[in-house]
Amino acid sequence: MEARKGVILAALFYPFSTATIAAGFLAFVMIVLKVDFLTVSTLVLWFYFACAASIYFISERALKAFGFRGLFLGFTITIGILAILSAALFVLRQFGTSI
């Protein structure tokens, strides 16, 4: 039973690995174009959060059926919190406020 659960978990994480590769490539291209690092991190985190939230909502029924809903929800919420913090730092920097 545990081997089957591992295969199911790997299949459910496949879209996240694709989104991770896409986010990494986006960051690479932006860094090569000499975009500011805070801008890169903000845009990449929001892109990754949008991907994670979309994947979570699309596969929510399957996640609930296999018992992985909490794991994926926690992952999505963590990425969302990081994206919000990065956006807050970006806005503070645009207004000239330093922390």
**H/E element string?**
HHHH
Please count the beta strands (DSSP E, at least 2 residues each): 0
Shape: elongated
| Low-pLDDT sequence parts | none
Biggest β-sheet description: none
Number of discrete helical segments: 4
Into which percent range does the helicity of residues fall? over 70%
Q: How many independent structural domains? A: 1
Rg over alpha carbons: 16 Å
How confident overall, as mean pLDDT?
89
Distance, first to last CA: 51 Å
Helical/strand content category = mainly alpha
**Strand content bin:** under 5%
In short:
The protein is an all-alpha fold and 99 residues long.
Describe what you observe in this structure.
Helix 1 packs antiparallel against helix 2 (37-58) and helix 2 (37-58) packs antiparallel against helix 4 (69-94). By secondary structure, the protein is mainly alpha-helical. The protein contains 4 helices and no strands. The mean pLDDT is 89. It has one domain (2-94).
